[in-house]
Amino acid sequence: MRRNRRVKIVATLGPASQNEETMRRLFEAGADVFRVNMSHASHETLSDIHAIVRKLEAEFSRPIGILVDLQGPKLRIGKFESGSIRLTEGDILTFVRREAIGGLGRVHLPHPEIFKSVEAGHTLLLDDGKFKLRIVEASDVRIDAEVMTSGLLGSRKGISLPDTILPLDSLTEKDRADVEHAMSLGVAWIALSFVQRAEDIAEARKLSRGRSAIMAKIEKPSALNQLKEIVDLADAIMVARGDLGVELPVEKVPGIQKQIIRTARNAGKPVVIATQMLESMIFAPIPTRAEVSDVATAVFEGADAVMLSAESAVGKYPVEAVATMDRVAIEVERDPLYEAIIHAQRIDPEATGADAISAAARTVAETLNLSAIICYTASGATSLRAARERPHQPILALTPIPTTARKLSVVWGLHCVLTDDPRDLDDMVAKASRIAYQEGFALPGQRVIISAGVPLGTPGATNMLRIAFVGDETEEF
Length: 477
Fold this sequence. Notes:
Layout: E1 8-13, H1 20-29, E2 33-37, H2 43-60, E3 65-69, E4 84-87, E5 92-96, E6 106-108, H3 112-117, E7 123-126, E8 131-138, E9 142-147, E10 151-154, E11 159-160, H4 173-185, E12 189-192, H5 198-208, E13 213-218, H6 221-224, H7 227-233, E14 236-240, H8 241-247, H9 253-267, E15 271-274, H10 289-300, E16 305-308, H11 310-313, H12 318-334, H13 338-344, H14 353-367, E17 373-376, H15 381-388, E18 395-399, H16 402-407, E19 414-418, H17 425-438, E20 447-453, E21 462-469, E22 474-476
Parallel strand pairs: 1-2, 1-16, 2-3, 3-12, 5-6, 12-13, 13-14, 14-15, 15-16, 17-18, 17-20, 18-19
Antiparallel strand pairs: 4-10, 5-9, 7-8, 7-11, 8-9, 20-21, 21-22
């Protein structure tokens, strides 16, 4: 099954969609990767989803990625005696460590690390940002904060601290158990929540031991201060706009989205745009025009993937949401301005042989109007370099390793095919030409360009280009 677009679609599974028939329809409609939110899924649910995905892979002869999204630390206030308290602008609300039922201007806060980290002048946000408070005074046992937003605050609501770096591991005990289970199944991607600094990625990588790729979710303002370092350590980036929009002024989020996309593309790392892309389709069969424009903007910017959350997990129209996103992406990529915008953001290659070869492959393919760029890849590095160039031609990624193919399912422009390693260079050319024809990327007599690392199977050693006719004749470049 060949997609008619280069950007990929990530569909979140949930009660509305995590059954075999709906997942089959989601894949047929355009889903390339299935996301499982471990805030709401059990290990048994993940195992069931994994089994269905592998069945669909065999049915459609296409690698399909699974993204396990970890819950991360959850910071919440305690309970109120009456279930809620009224906050009035200008009042002082006191947070205390001592376990007690809150009320009368006092709130139990069962997180000692918050008391140790906050300072006067820092901001506290409660209930997904509905209430804003400014800290007046803080100690190890008490925080006094001025209320800046009036309203009724309920028990056990979430608390966010946009100005504060907390001494918390991004991985909780639950997350560690979830990671181990996901990796025992062979899941390709782990999404790491609550990333505050580059060290959080290093910790997750130690736990993964190379078994799964790590996608860092950028949802904390503190992560933006170390964005380049986080991008360098992670395998991919997710722009978690919902949480960013809680902890930052909402008007800043579009610019930050562009900044993150550019940084990830500079590093050759896949970047996923997430949250509320087609939010109205939770309840409606068609999106708003603004939502369509939001998806289109991400595609124009060269994001690797766009993601559906509640739309496909709990919405009334999960298949229609994926199909709508698919149509929008196809239309954007056909737009006369699309190529010019993508090319304007093209990144200069790094001063390495592998990057120079990948840049040359794109230049040759466009100059000679070749039918496709074909990459032999073991680790995925060769294909990632090819995608970083954002070429006009389609990219076929040929790999003998199922995990690599599944990992690449989130990457812009890649059509992944599982195939054995070629015996020698002649077999490499013949196999690549045959697959290009079988997959519908080239006709007999047309030419393709092939990149690979020699000796074959050497990770990251892209050092060869070859132009080949789809047929018996080849010519070396």
